[in-house]
Structures are given as structure tokens and as C-alpha cells.
Amino acid sequence: MLQKLDFQNPFTTELPADGELENYNRLVEHACYSWVTPSPVAQPQLIAYSTEMAACFQLTEHDCRAESFAQLFAGNQLPPTIKPYATCYGGHQFGSWAGQLGDGRAINLGEIIDRSGTPWTLQLKGAGPTPYSRHADGRAVLRSSIREFLCSEAMAHLGIPTTRALSLIATGDAVARDMLYNGNTQMEPGAIVCRTAPSFTRFGQFQLFSKRNDVELLKTFTDYTINHDFPHLGAPSQAIYLQWFQEVVDTTIDLMVHWARVGFVHGVMNTDNMSILGLTLDYGPYGWLDDFNPDWTPNTTDRQTRRYRFGKQGEVAGWNLARLAESLIPLIGSKEPLQAILNHYRSTYHARWSAMMMQKLGLQNSIEGDQELIESLQSVLCLTEIDMTLFYRALAKIESHIPLEQQTHTMLMQSIHEALYQPEQITTKVETAICAWLTRYIERLKQQPLHDVARKIAMNQINPKFILRNYLTQQAIDAAYQGDYSMIETLLQAMRNPYDEQPQQQSLAQKRPDWAKHRVGCSMLSCSS
Ligand code: AMP
Ligand code: MG
User: Fold this and answer.
1) Higher pLDDT, residue 202 or 519
2) Which residues contact 113 (CB under 8 A, 6 or more apart)?
3) Active site amino acids
4) Hey, which bits of 25-101 come out as E strands?
5) Of the bound ligands, which one is closest to the alpha carbon of residue 102?
6) Ligand 1 pocket check for 195: Cβ under 6 Å
7) Which residues lie closer than 8 Å to 336 by C-beta, 6 or more apart?
8) Is the CB of 285 under 6 A from ligand 1?
């Protein structure tokens, strides 16, 4: 197996290292990374792996199930070609500059280039302390590792830019965690996810080097990033820096629009969790909308201000990009050209969000009134608890050729019935508002030539039937804590084709059951992981 893995080390070869080799907490200056070795774990055991990522590295099932695979990807036995390191970055956390953060529990193994030429950095999350651990233990618990493993793969299958996960390995060691930060510390099983991405670079690197006034390092790192992660831009120069920033803005907007499309809430959009490639990065207390609610966040750590709630993610990403822009001023010489790019953020985001909403609704060409139809839907969906995912799948089935005078309120409500959480509690006023919107929608459908069958096919390609519902992942976690890993596999399998009907997986496409509405792990998560 090892012979197949040809590790390259451009990050450590081309960027300056921390000269200190001892592994203790410290501020690391004038360096992009520190050499650090994973701390061994007691008994690595493979829980799950991604066949797609394995195939990328030409690893077979036999390879992945071998003892040596678990030993390698738990960090116990590394071949001499691997020179592990942890990267140095900073970040704004919940709106305040936090200074140096860095890979506190993620240790990079190096890079493998796949057959298509894509470089993949492999990184072990939970592999033990690093110079950036800041008094934490460098470990990860099984529940959060299951969440990261499943969600990164689910995201990828949904067609959303994301870091990936090659493997999920139980360490055999226990980890102490106060799950809700309420003084209730418990021992939990530990795990390590091998994460992969073309690059794990965050906004936080540029910020840290810039805040420290280390312009030389800022330039070195930016040039490396452009050469390595944005080679199509050509040789770095001032003009290219701006083109590059524009691309970061664009990919970040695209990511926000994707999240809005499927109802994903990241939960901790701190600038250290913002990928320079516009990937979904650092799966912590994330969640998926069941009932549509722009104010919802699963992160109890953010309960007071809800800074990172669903409906705010686009705006927050703009704020984060402004922090990135600030850190690039020393490279550009002035703020204005960066500001000029940022000035288009709001309108571009809104235009792309609207285009995405048109697709969600199966509308072809924008005509007058569409914007209002889209905006009013946002309020209609809040009138009662309506499952966002099931709602759009139900809309796809609406038959627009039936004359409107034949569509009674009962029929209209029936068409979205499966998406309603409390149909019996719906007042006449709410029913009237929902039916008014549905009627307008059907009228609008009648104005386009697209046949219902073709519209349904198109809508079902953008509106998933399967999302990684919070309660399903929690059920997989509950079973795993009893030693049964089978549901992880079941979810992974269903999420491979999230837009297909998959009738045999129907039970995984149901709305959230009542018991999960206020359960820890389902709707309430903290940063403790
Ligand atoms: P996060 O909120 O997960 O993005 O983490 C913020 C910072 O805390 C990053 O620098 C992480 O590496 C670090 N961190 C989080 N959990 C741990 C842990 N258990 N041990 C060491 N560092 C951690
Ligand atoms: Mg993070």
C-alpha cells in the first residue's frame, strides 16, 4: 500500500519552517509551519473510509482494510518519506481578532498528486498536540469525527466545494470533553479523520502574517498560494494579486450560494475556518435546516448573537473577505483596488443567489415579478414549520397544466403536505398565504414553455432529496458509541446519490422526528469536539 503513496512536500520545501523542533505551545514567528510528529494512539481501528478518495490514491479495499492503513492514518507508523507538520495561522473568532491559532490538532502528512494532476494534502485531524494546541489536547472525539467524515463526503456528492475525508479511524484512547461547556466532563472514544484537500490554506494565514507586519512572509506565502493553488493565474504580480483576490471573492460567493441552496449552516464562520479555495472547511457544530428558518444556528456557543445563523452566512462571508482584503493591503500598496472588488460583493451575491433560487423553483428565464416571487417565498416558508428539502421536492411534482380554478386550497395544501411539520396547527390565514403563493407560482409556470416532466427533472437535480439530516448523523453516532458502525456506512451510501429517488432509502429522506427537535447533537451543538 505504502509504495503507491508518493508523498511530495511543496509546502515545507518552498515555505519557511519554524526552527524550533520541540513540541510545546508557543508563538511561531517568521514561519509558515512547525515540524511535528503525531502522538501514537493505543489501538487504531478503521471505522470507515471513502472509496472515492481511496480510488483517487489508487488504494483498493484490501489496502484500506490492512492493518498498515489504520496504523498510518492514525499517525502511529509513518514511512520516512512523510515529514509531518502543522501550519501557522490566525483568525477573527466571532468578530474579534484572536491572534495566532494554527493547526492545534491537525497534522499534515504531505501531498499526493492524483492521476488528473490534482494535488491532495493529507491531514490527520486529532493526531495529538502541536505547538498551536494552546492548552488543548490535540485530540478529537468520535462523535465529531463521524460528523466531519460523513459531512465532507455528503457535501462532495451534493456537488458543493469541500475538503474531503479519506478515513475515519478509532484510536482506542479515551478523550475528556465537556460537551456543552456546562461543567459535565466525560470520557469519550477518540478518533482521527484523515482529511484531504487541494489546500487547507485559510484566510487566517494572510491575516496573521499581515497583522504581524511580516510583509516578507505575507508575500512569500501569497506567491506560494498563487503558484500552487491558482496556477492558472500566472506569475504573481500586483495585478495578479488583485485577480486572485477577485477569484477568492467569487468562489466564496459560490460556496455561500451552495450552502443557501441545500440549507447548510456552518456554525463557526471564523476567518480561520474560511478556505482560500472556497471549500467548506472545518466541520464543527454545523447543521442542516429541517424546517426553513433563516435565524437558525445549531451552535449553542453562538446562541446569544447568532452571528453565524443560516440567513446571515452570505453577509458574514463578505465581512470575512473584507478582513482578508485588509491583510493584503501591504501587497497592493493601497486599499482602493481591493475595496473596488468588495464593493460588488453584495450585488454579485444577490444576483447569484437569485439565479440559484430561479433554478430551485424550476424557472427558466427571469421575467418581471420573479424577484418578488422569490423574496415572498422566504417569508411564506417562515409562516409555519416547513421542511425546506421536502418542500422543493414537492414543488417539483406540482402539475401546472391543471386549470387554476380547479385547484382548491385543499389540493394545493395537499401538494406540500409532506413538508409540513404541524399541518393541524395551520390557521386559515397562514393557509391562505401559502395557497396564494402556490397559485402565483403555478401561474408563473404556465408562462414558460417548459413541460412539467422536464421541469421536475431539472428541479430534482438541484434540490436534493437526501441531506445529512442532523438527527440521522446523531443516530449513527449513538449506534457507534454502542460499537455499531453500520449506520455510518448506510448514510454514506445514501448520500452518494442525494438527488436520486432511491426508494429503498426512503426512511433517510423523512422530516425530522419530534424527539430530535431539541436534542443535544441534533439541534444543539457546541464547539467542543
Ligand atoms: P475550531 O473552532 O475547531 O476551528 O478551532 C479553533 C482553533 O482551536 C484551531 O486553532 C484549532 O486547531 C484549535 N483546537 C480546537 N480543538 C482543539 C483541540 N482539541 N486541541 C488542540 N487544538 C484545538
Ligand atoms: Mg478551525
Assistant:
1) 202
2) 6, 8, 119, 120
3) 272
4) 33-35, 45-49, 85-87, 90-93, 96-100
5) 1
6) no
7) none
8) no
Spatial distance between the Cα atoms of 207 and 359, rounded to a whole number of angstroms: 36
DSSP 8-state code for residue 273: G
Q: Is the CB of 264 under 6 A from ligand 1?
A: no
* Whole-angstrom distance, CA of residue 525 vs CA of residue 95: 20
Alpha helices (runs of H) in 336-408, residue ranges in sequence order: 336-342, 345-360, 370-380, 388-397
**Three-class SS state of 8:** strand
Q: pLDDT category, 480, cuts 50, 70, 90?
A: very high
**Banded pLDDT at 78 (limits 50, 70, 90):** very high
Answer yes or no: is pLDDT of 377 > 80: yes
Q: From the CB of 284, is ligand 1 less than 6 Å away?
A: yes
| CB-count exposure of residue 186 (10 Å: 0-12, 13-18, 19+) | exposed
pLDDT tier at 36, thresholds 50, 70, 90: very high
469 Cβ neighbours under 8 A, 6+ residues apart: 288, 290, 508, 512
- Cβ 114 vs Cβ 56: under 8 Å: yes
Task: Give burial (CB, 10 Å; 0-12/13-18/19+) of 343.
Answer: exposed
* Ligand 1 within 6 A of CB of 91: no
129 CA closest ligand 1 atom index: 21
User: What is the distance between the alpha carbons of residues 341 and 483, in angstroms, rounded to a whole number?
Assistant: 51
Binned at pLDDT 50, 70 and 90, residue 213 comes out as very high
Contact criterion met (CB below 8 Å) for 112 and 120: yes
Residues 6+ apart with CB under 8 A from 523: 287, 298, 470, 516, 517
| Nearest Cα residue to atom 7 of ligand 1 | 101
Please name the residue that has the C-alpha cell 417548459: 450
Q: How far away, in angstroms, is 49 Cα from ligand 1 center?
A: 23
- Centroid of ligand 2 to alpha carbon of 501 (angstroms): 35
Ligand 1: which residue has its CA nearest to atom 6?
101
Cα–Cα distance, 309 to 296 (Å, whole number): 5
Output the CA 527–ligand 1 centroid distance in Å: 9
- The grid coordinates of residue 307 equal 452571528
Counting every residue written for the chain, the total comes to: 529
Q: Where are the domains of the chain?
A: 2-203, 228-356, 363-449
Does residue 498 sit in helix, strand or coil? coil
Which pTM was predicted? 0.98
Distance 437 CA to ligand 2 centre (A): 41
527 lines ligand 1 (CB under 6 A): yes
Percentage of residues in the chain having pLDDT higher than 90? 94
Per residue, what are the HEC states of 416-462?
CHHHECCHHHCCHHHHHHHHHHHHHHHHHHHCCCCCHHHHHHHHHCC
On average, the pLDDT of the chain sits at 97
- Residues 6 or more apart in contact with residue 476 via CB below 8 angstroms: 146, 150, 487, 488, 490, 491
Residue 89 DSSP SS3: coil
Give the amino acid at 407. Q
